[in-house]
Each structure stands twice: as structure tokens, then as C-alpha cells.
Model the fold of this input.
Amino acid sequence: MSEAAQERSARNAGGSSGAKVGTFLAKQGILIAFVLFMVSFALASERFLDPDNILGVIRSSAILGVMALGVTFVVISGNLDLSVGSLMSFSTIVVLDLHDTLGPALAILAMFGMTLAIGAVIGFLVGYLRLNSLIVTLGMLSAIHGLTLTWSGGQNMDIADKAGTWFAVFGQGRALGIPMPILMFALLAAVLGIVLAKTPFGRKVYAVGGNGTAATFSGIRRARTVFTCYLISAFCVATAGLIQASRSMGSQNTVGQGMELEVLAAVILGGASLMGGSGTIFKTVIGVLILGFIQNGLLLIGLQFYVQFVVTWIIIILAVWLDIAAKRGRLLSPIA
Done:
């Protein structure tokens, strides 16, 4: 073999190895980042890996995580949902208000029904009328917030007889020694993970998000798929509202304000593309846990709360940047 041929062969081998490394990082980058964050904070604080601390972080992240599961479907389908924070406030206030008049069982059913109805309206506007999801859900954020304030009369809500109701089980109960919010989060993640990865509907969600026009010509009902994704998101928000209301047995009428951005950050941190067509439930769970453990780790090492917001933002940007860089095989964009 000539010297030039040997050089070409070496370059090809190096390129192949680089491509394999890039592919591995693209698929597993979020897991590597999660391990690095855990190791770093464990070295910085001996309390970080304490079982009670870990369980507490997961429990406090469960509400955000449940909401992120539903938004994962919406994002993979190529859309956004910025109304989940306001909708969570609405569902929490409604179930608390109806608890004393209808009883816990009927209050829960009524709250889920109203939350799903709002989700259906959003799904109809985005799926069937083909309106821009950013504009629709941004408008619904304000509309639902106004609806919540109207329902509550601008007042916070509390359950009158906190000791005489079983309603607290969803937010304060335990099963097999594990807090109920964690079990509900895990169960919902398992079910939705199977739906997304193993069912025809899940494949339709990926197809619609990857190329909506091609999916339509393939016989997939795009509007119905998008509509269903928003219903799933609304169901998850209602579940999160139930956990929140049960956990505190009372709530401010702005309890979910701003959570839509945290939810979206967790979903994107988990590897879902804002362009649609990619993402998994499992990695969304990892994204949620990364956010939770970052905030907890920064607290344990003594940073002030206002510094934590900046550091968390920087870590999220770096993690997303490295994930995108791994997928395209370079740190900077080819057109930069």
C-alpha cells in the first residue's frame, strides 16, 4: 500500500472513530452530564448523597416532572405548551375550592374534567385550526390565569377540615415507604414511556413532529395526533395540580406561575428537540432530576438563592449546547 493510501486509510479510521464517539455522546450525553453533576456535588457536600436528601429532591421534583411528561408529547409532535403553569394553578385552586362543597372524590373528577376541557380547546386550536402553538398557548397562559383569579375571587384557597379528609394521601401519603408523589410520577412515566415508545400512537407523534406534511400523506391524521398530545399534557397538569393541592391542603392562586419555563427547560435538557420528532420520556425524567439536583446541590454548597438562578441557567445552556454539538460533531455551527 502506498504512503498516500495509508494516510487516507488512517484518516478514514479516525473519522469513523470520531463519528462513533459523536453518536455515543448524542445518545448518552444527558446521562453523562447527570453523572458528572452528581459526582461534582457529592464531592462538594457530604450531605448531597444522603438518602433522605435524595428522596426529598425527587419528591420536590415530582410535580414539575409530571407536567414535563405531558409536555414531552407536545414538543415531540413539533409544538409548544406555555400554558401549563397557569393551568396547574387553575386545577389546584379548583380542586381545593370544590373539596368542601362536593367532597374529595367529586372535586377531583370535576377538576380533571375542566382541565381536560381546556386542554381540548388548546388542542383544537393548534391541531385542527392549525394556529401557531406558541401564540395560542401564550394567549391561553393569560386567559387561564384570569380564569383562575376569577374563580378564586383573587383569594388563596384552603381546605376547611384538613384532619377529616383522605385528600392528603396524594401529596403526603406513602406506600411501601416511598412518598406518594414519587410513586405517581414513576407510574405515569412508565405508562407514558410505553405509550410513546411501543405503540402506534407514539410512532405517529414522532412522525408528525419529524415531518408533518409527509405524515399526512402517509395517512396519519395529524390534527387528531396533535389534539391528543394536548389532552395528555392537560391530564398530566391536572395530576400535578392534584399532588400540589394535596401536599399543602391549600394554595396561592399563582402557585404554577413561571413553571412553564422550568418544564420546557427540563424537556429540552432531556434531549427533546424544539423542532419536533425527537425525545424520550426516560430522558425527560433525567432532565427533571438534573434540574432538581442542581438546585439542591447549589443550596447545599451555600450559594444564595439569587445566584442559584444564574448558575442553573448557565448549566442548562452548557448542557444543551454540548448535546447539540455532539449531534452535529462540532462545537460551533458550520455557518458560525
About this structure: The first strand starts at residue 157 and ends at 158. DSSP finds 13 helices and four strands in the chain. The mean pLDDT is 86. Residues 3-44 form the longest helix (42 residues).
